[in-house]
Amino acid sequence: MDIVLVPGFWLDASSWDAVTPPLVAAGHRVHPLTLPGLESVDASRSGIGLREHIDAVVAVVDSLEGPVVLVGHSGGGAIIYGVTDARPNRIARAIYVDSGPLGEGESINDELPADGDDVPLPAWELFEDADLIDLDEGLRAAFRARAIPEPRGVAQDAMQLHDERRLAVPTTIIACEFTAAQVTEWLAAGAPFLAELARVGDAEYVDLPTGHWPQFTKPAELAAAILAAVDRG
């Protein structure tokens, strides 16, 4: 199976380095991505928005043969949902790592502080405590050293969706800073921020207790959760 790994904000393909070996060892073809504007700190992020990131992943899917599994971490979840909308017949499963589908007209996070075309990694104080579970001082320093500003448009642009066949794509939510039970409760209560997920016809919820960056804090467990989801798919 071809597995496409889409990083969250401020990260490039190398953020998956500790996750990919078990996937490759299991016989899968793994494609960790660096999205436009994330090539380096000095890269231009002018004119790069959510659609450009979705289109970049669609191009990778189109370059592959057969079904594809998409994995999206954090803001990358919105991007893979846009890809399932664009290519619903090509996606065997969409796996959201501490993230989920983004609905029509919604943005990933338009409250992040921007500096021109850039959204730099904020100070840790701006994150919630749950985000930072298991992200010790060494991991925080390594993350900040590798962080690349996110294109402002990716954070702020409104999602545009076109094909409701995306709702039939098998979906896995890997719940980290929240639990699978909480997701089920929020869905039952009609939580507005889960309105799009509530429309997905085939969704499962898997616990991986840690903070918002399991590829750094629990990479082996994240790889196992991805493999289990792929096997079920």
Q: In words, what does this structure look like?
A:
InterPro entries: AB_hydrolase_1, AB_hydrolase_fold, Sec-Metab_Biosynth_Hydrolase. It comes from Microterricola viridarii. Residues 3-225 form the AB hydrolase-1 domain. The protein has 233 residues and is of the alpha/beta class. It has one domain: Alpha/Beta hydrolase fold, catalytic domain (Rossmann fold), CATH 3.40.50.1820. 33% of the residues lie in helices and 15% in strands. It is built from nine helices and eight strands. It has helices at 20-25, 50-63, 76-86, 137-146, 152-156, 180-188, 195-199, 214-217, 219-232; strands at residues 2-6, 29-32, 68-73, 91-97, 118-119, 150-151, 171-175, 203-207. It has a six-stranded parallel beta sheet with strand order 2-1-3-4-7-8, with helices on both faces. A two-stranded antiparallel sheet has the order 5-6. α2 crosses α3 (76-86). The longest helix is centred in the N-terminal third of the chain and has 14 residues, at 50-63. The chain is globular. The termini are close together. The mean pLDDT is 97.
Keywords:
alpha/beta; six-stranded parallel beta sheet; 233 residues; Rossmann fold
Lay out the secondary structure:
Blueprint: E1 2-6, H1 20-25, E2 29-32, H2 50-63, E3 68-73, H3 76-86, E4 91-97, E5 118-119, H4 137-146, E6 150-151, H5 152-156, E7 171-175, H6 180-188, H7 195-199, E8 203-207, H8 214-217, H9 219-232
Parallel strand pairs: 1-2, 1-3, 3-4, 4-7, 7-8
Antiparallel strand pairs: 5-6
Helix pairs in contact: 2-3
